[in-house]
Write a sequence for this structure.
């Protein structure tokens, strides 16, 4: 079972529950050799990791008997995932073991996440061979689920062929499982083909249910983590921490450094702080490998924790762009996201907590920025205004601001991302007191601004619905900015200072219900929860029957039953397909207050 707790576009913090064991994603599963767990299992516990991955083929070959519990062998109570020997076959040649044998064996040793023995798609395999192999993998996946039940990892293969990745994802996604590793990407990683990794992930993810858990097999270098999780990966595994350590290489958030390149001080970590470079080089090979391996795993875990914070603060695009500029091939991978705009945009909110920071031309191709440009930018040439907020530098109602995004109507000067962005050479002045603009044309400008923002946000002019003469505004006493919108004395909208968009009130939700055709701006819920929703309870995904396909995360929506009776209003946390496909988690945060409906 999987649910989203926090999200920033495709990047998400989730809770994965398997066999009554829970783990927060995004998560790193360190690869453990089942018969060489010291000192690594102790480090895993020190770093408070709740999941690991080990290899069932090595266990079986090494004589670990059926019926014994792999958790006991490892001395680990968290989630244990087992691989089936596919990667060993990729490395060493054909293995004399069947898919069903490995599936049954993994089940017998109480593996939490069982992996089928799929066929690895090599880079030099022909399109015809890979097509045959992914169909055989599908057969093996179906066989495994019939044998063991639902929670089986079904790897998506396809090699370098995008269409075969999509086909593999569709075939595996048709089976009753929720867990899908992206296989065959280690050779891409080893060749720094990060763009091909991102392409493989997004081609796979876009052809699976949004509720699918995505695992990037072997993508364990921390410099690549931001792009992986920006692309919607939930789980990664890594043996890089130990492999690099054996070669005297130190992992950092932005690359890899050779130990011999350090004169004295080493990167900060609790595992390296006891040594300088000379002292570390003087250790035996095994001792040095252990110290470097511990550091490498520590750095990987810390980077993962940093990424979780970026997701919580809705700053993943800024962070991923910043980090991608540390390596040309990471930047190439970032640019690959633009090819998937149609898919990614469906998960992008209209605004974020954090502003847009310009780092290069890629910034203007972010899905939320591209959507704003397509909806709000005028083709006419605008008046150049260099300082923000723009509206305080003109009291004309017809100005077009020549912003960094293009010519933007002055009515949208406070709407995300125009005011909530920073480009080189831009400077801000404090908000001027616009209460001095009391000329009739300025009041008219503010009334028109309400109409334009409403149209941008909800897709229809407000004054095609309401009599503009009955609109009154409540403005900030300090800045003169619009705060609340009233109609006939009743509040219908509140203008958020954070992003320049409207929040609905109860009266505003009545307005939407009466003037927009079903199912526009609606989330439709099961009748059995109607009373709970009217009492202000949140809407859970399992009770959603349908929703407007245009809903994006954080949109203001109304909540209705199948007969379109208004139950409440709130902010969506998921888009429509997520609401339909997830069985756990909150779909809409209810904003109904106790006195609203009265």
């Amino acid at each position: 079972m999987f649910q989203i707790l926090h999200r920033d576009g495709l990047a998400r913090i989730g809770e994965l529950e398997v066999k009554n064991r829970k783990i927060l994603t995004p998560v790193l599963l360190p690869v453990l050799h089942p018969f060489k767990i010291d000192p690594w299992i102790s480090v895993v516990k020190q770093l408070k990791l709740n999941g690991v991955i080990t290899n069932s083929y090595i266990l079986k070959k090494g004589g670990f008997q059926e019926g014994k519990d792999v958790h006991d062998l490892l001395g680990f109570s968290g989630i244990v995932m087992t691989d089936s020997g596919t990667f060993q076959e990729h490395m060493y040649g054909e293995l004399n073991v069947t898919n069903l044998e490995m599936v049954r064996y993994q089940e017998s040793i109480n593996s939490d996440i069982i992996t089928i023995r799929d066929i690895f798609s090599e880079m030099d395999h022909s399109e015809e061979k890979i097509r045959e192999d992914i169909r055989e993998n599908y057969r093996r996946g179906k066989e495994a689920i019939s044998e063991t039940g639902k929670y089986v990892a079904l790897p998506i293969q396809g090699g370098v062929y995008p269409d075969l990745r999509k086909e593999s994802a569709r075939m595996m996604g048709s089976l009753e499982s929720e867990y899908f590793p992206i296989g065959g990407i280690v050779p891409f990683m080893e060749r720094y083909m990060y763009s091909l990794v991102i392409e493989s992930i997004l081609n796979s993810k876009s052809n699976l249910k949004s509720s699918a858990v995505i695992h990037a097999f072997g993508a364990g270098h921390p410099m690549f983590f931001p792009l992986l999780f920006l692309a919607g990966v939930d789980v990664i595994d890594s043996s890089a921490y130990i492999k690099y350590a054996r070669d005297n290489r130190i992992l950092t958030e932005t690359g890899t450094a050779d130990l011999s390149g350090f004169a004295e001080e080493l990167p900060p970590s609790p595992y390296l702080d006891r040594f300088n470079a000379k002292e570390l080089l003087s250790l035996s090979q095994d001792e040095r490998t252990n110290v470097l391996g511990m550091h490498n795993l520590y750095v990987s875990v810390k980077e993962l924790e940093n990424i979780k914070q970026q997701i919580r603060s809705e700053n993943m695009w800024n962070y991923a762009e910043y980090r991608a500029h540390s390596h040309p091939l990471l930047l190439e991978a970032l640019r690959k996201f633009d090819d998937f705009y149609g898919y990614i945009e469906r998960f992008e909110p209209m605004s974020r907590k954090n502003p847009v920071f310009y780092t290069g031309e890629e910034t203007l191709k972010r899905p939320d920025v591209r959507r704003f440009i397509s909806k709000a930018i005028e083709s006419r040439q605008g008046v150049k205004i260099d300082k923000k907020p723009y509206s305080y530098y003109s009291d004309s109602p017809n100005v077009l601001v020549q912003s960094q995004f293009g010519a933007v109507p002055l009515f949208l000067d406070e709407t995300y991302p125009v005011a909530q962005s920073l480009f080189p050479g831009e400077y801000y002045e404090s908000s001027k007191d616009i209460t001095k603009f009391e000329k009739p044309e300025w009041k008219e400008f503010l009334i028109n601004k309400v109409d334009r923002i409403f149209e941008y946000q909800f897709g229809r002019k407000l004054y095609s619905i309401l009599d503009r003469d009955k609109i009154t505004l409540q403005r900030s006493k300090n800045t003169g900015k619009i705060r609340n919108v009233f109609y006939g004395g009743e509040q219908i909208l509140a203008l958020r200072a954070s992003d320049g968009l409207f929040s609905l009130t109860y009266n505003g939700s009545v307005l939407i219900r009466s003037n927009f055709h079903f199912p526009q701006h609606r989330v439709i819920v099961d009748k059995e929860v109607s009373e709970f929703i009217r009492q202000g309870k949140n809407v859970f995904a399992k009770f959603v029957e349908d929703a407007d396909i245009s809903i994006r995360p954080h949109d203001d929506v109304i909540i209705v039953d199948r007969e379109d009776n208004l139950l409440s209003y709130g902010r969506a946390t998921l888009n429509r397909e997520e609401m339909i496909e997830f069985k756990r988690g909150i779909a809409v945060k209810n904003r109904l207050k106790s006195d609203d409906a009265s």
User: Anything to note?
Assistant: The mean pLDDT is 92. Residues 348-428 form a domain with the Archaeosine Trna-guanine Transglycosylase; Chain: A, domain 2 fold (CATH 3.90.1020.10).
